[in-house]
Design brief:
By secondary structure, the protein is an alpha+beta fold. The chain folds into two domains: 1-106, no CATH class; 146-244, no CATH class. It has helices at residues 2-9, 25-31, 37-43, 47-61, 66-78, 110-119, 126-131, 152-160, 233-243; strands at 15-16, 81-87, 90-96, 101-105, 138-140, 145-146, 167-168, 171-172, 178-183, 189-199, 202-209, 214-215. It has a five-stranded antiparallel sheet with strand order 1-2-3-4-5. A five-stranded antiparallel sheet has the order 6-9-10-11-12, covered by helices on one side. A two-stranded antiparallel sheet has the order 7-8. Strand 7 (167-168) and strand 8 form a beta hairpin. The longest helix has 15 residues, at 47-61.
Length: 244
Amino acid sequence: MRDSIATCLGESELVFFHEKEELSFEEAKKGFPQISKGWFELSKLQPPVRLEFIRDYWINAVPYFPHVYAAFDRFFSQVEEIGIVGSKRGVYMTYTLKTTFFIGGIPLSDGGIETLKGQFDFPFPKDYLHFFRIHNGFAKGKDTGILATEALPDACKNVRSREGIIRCGQEVVDLQELFPFYSSFGLDVYQCFYQNWYVDGQVGNVLYSIAEGKISDFRTREKGEEYLAFTSFLDWLIFYLEGL
């Protein structure tokens, strides 16, 4: 799995902080300026304690929904190891499962989340913003995954600058009402928040296929995995953790 992680990060040499017992925070900071004191201290915990701590952190970082907490428990029950990895690109947290892995970037501070909200004129759902407290960028294996903040401007430009008519069923879609938060590696598709679809005061999200010139029809009776239309970011995240 380490070779796969190295390939994902485009580097052959990685530093696994959780295996460097002799490394001090000052030494780590010198080589990897992005590492935070919190993540460095996490790397010093025993593996089972680190896993339990991160699981609890996920649960406490997002709004309370029983089915979401249950899904997080299922996910972490499959995680064999959580590591802190340094590379030339930055510092990441890795979640190693039996047959795959997930990788996440350093979370945003509250100030960073406020900066994001001010950067874009869009009604971001609260659960999406809360996820940035966990990771800024998160992906399964070699997937592009949930976009980090620095990738959002280019993704928005790519989605919103397309020519031609984009449809939802028979209705024409205003591309300015789409905001991409996930990109699939090797495919010209994005999961996007759609400003024309509100559920309980928050925008839902749909799949936008650039090649097909359409978004998933959220008005169908069957939503979720089959149509890739989700009423919340967290419901989509559960699908990503379990079903992709």
